[in-house]
Specification:
Transferase(Phosphotransferase), domain 1; five-stranded antiparallel sheet; 9 strands; globular
Length: 314
C-alpha cells in the first residue's frame, strides 16, 4: 500500500478474507458500493443477510478517532435512534487485516427522503434534535471540529499546491481563501454557537427512507460543531420547508435561530473543503475517473468565482 494509491492492495480476495477473519462466512458475492473516501462493499454471507464492509482510508483517522465514531453511533442506537452502527464481534468494532482497518455494518436499504414534504421535514427535524440531545451529553476528544482551520485553511493547502490549479489563478485563490476564512471566523464570533457532537455530513444521501421512516448512515465525518451543521443541507425546499425542519426540531430541543446566519459560512467552508479534498486525493485512481472536470482550468476559475460570491453573501 502507498500513500498515493492506498487501496492498491485491496483485492476482492483481501476483502473476503477480512470478513471471514472477523467471524463470518462469505458466500463469494461481492458488490463495490459508491464511496470515494473509503472503500465500501456489500458482502454476501452464507445462510444470512449480506453485510457492509467499510475499509477506512489509511492515515486519514487514527484508531482513537474511528473508535469515537463507533462509540457515538452505538450510543445513538442505544437511545433507540435510527442510526446504522457497526457490528460488534468478540467485543470489537474495528478490525485490521493485511494492513487495512475495517468495520462491518448491517445492510440497510432505503431511498432518498422527499425534502419537499412538510411531514418528512418535521420528522427529520425531530430525529436530529434527539441525535443532538445525545450529542450534547459529552464532547469528542479525538474528532475534528467544524471551523475555518479544519475546513478552510488545511484543505486549501492541498488545492493551492496541487498541479491541478492553474498558475494564473493561484495568487487570487490564496487571497480569496484568506478573505473567506476571516469572514467565516467573524460570522462564528457573532453567533458564538453551542458546540456538540454531530453527524457532521448530514446531506440527503446519508438519510435513507423506508416505509418505516428514515435512518441515518455514514458517521465517518462526525465532528464537533453547531446544530445547524446537521440541518442546513436538509433545508432545500424553501422557507416553509425550512420552518418545518425547525418546528420538528423544537419539539425535542431548543434551536437558536441565530445559527441560521451560519448557513452561508458553512456552505462556503464546504465548497473550499471540497476542492482541497479532491486535490489531496488526486493520485487515488478513483478521483480522476469520477472528477475529470477538476483537471480543467475553467473549473478552478468557477471555483474562485464561487468563493467570491460566498464572501459577498457573508
Amino acid at each position: 500500500m502507498s500513500a498515493a494509491q492506498p487501496y492498491a492492495g485491496l483485492s476482492p480476495d483481501t476483502v473476503l478474507d477480512a470478513v471471514e477473519r472477523a467471524g463470518f462466512v462469505p458466500d463469494g458475492r461481492l458488490l463495490a458500493l459508491n464511496s470515494f473516501e473509503n472503500r465500501v462493499y456489500q458482502v454476501g454471507i452464507e445462510d444470512s443477510a449480506p453485510l457492509i464492509a467499510k475499509f477506512y482510508r489509511p492515515a486519514r483517522w487514527n484508531d482513537a478517532a474511528i473508535m469515537e465514531e463507533h462509540a457515538f453511533s452505538m450510543e445513538l442506537m442505544e437511545a433507540e435512534l435510527p442510526v446504522v452502527a457497526p457490528i460488534v464481534c468478540d467485543g470489537q468494532t474495528l478490525f485490521l487485516h493485511d494492513g487495512f482497518r475495517f468495520a462491518l455494518f448491517p445492510r440497510k436499504g432505503g431511498r432518498a427522503p422527499d425534502l419537499e414534504g412538510i411531514e418528512v421535514s418535521q420528522w427529520l427535524g425531530r430525529l436530529l434534535a434527539r441525535i443532538h440531545l445525545v450529542g450534547a451529553r459529552q464532547a469528542f476528544a479525538h474528532r475534528q471540529r467544524i471551523d475555518a482551520d479544519t475546513l478552510v485553511w488545511t484543505p486549501h493547502l492541498a488545492a493551492r499546491d496541487s498541479e491541478l490549479m492553474p498558475d494564473a489563478i493561484r495568487d487570487r485563490y490564496e487571497d480569496l481563501v484568506g478573505d473567506a476564512a476571516d469572514a467565516i471566523d467573524d460570522a462564528f464570533e457573532r453567533v458564538q454557537p453551542t458546540t456538540l457532537r454531530l453527524h457532521g455530513d448530514c446531506h440527503p444521501g446519508n438519510v435513507l427512507w423506508t416505509d418505516a421512516g428514515p435512518h441515518f448512515v455514514d458517521l465517518d465525518d462526525c465532528r464537533s460543531g453547531p446544530a445547524i451543521q446537521d440541518l442546513w443541507m436538509l433545508m432545500s425546499g424553501g422557507e416553509a420547508q425550512r420552518e418545518a425542519v425547525i418546528e420538528g426540531y423544537e419539539q425535542f430541543r431548543p434551536f437558536d435561530r441565530n445559527e441560521l446566519s451560519l448557513i452561508e459560512p458553512l456552505r462556503l467552508m464546504r465548497q473550499i473543503h471540497y476542492a482541497g479534498w479532491i486535490a489531496e486525493r488526486w493520485a487515488d485512481p478513483a478521483f480522476p475517473a469520477a472528477f475529470p472536470h477538476v483537471a480543467l482550468a475553467p473549473w478552478w476559475e468557477q471555483h474562485c468565482r464561487d468563493i467570491a460570491e460566498g464572501i459577498d453573501l457573508l
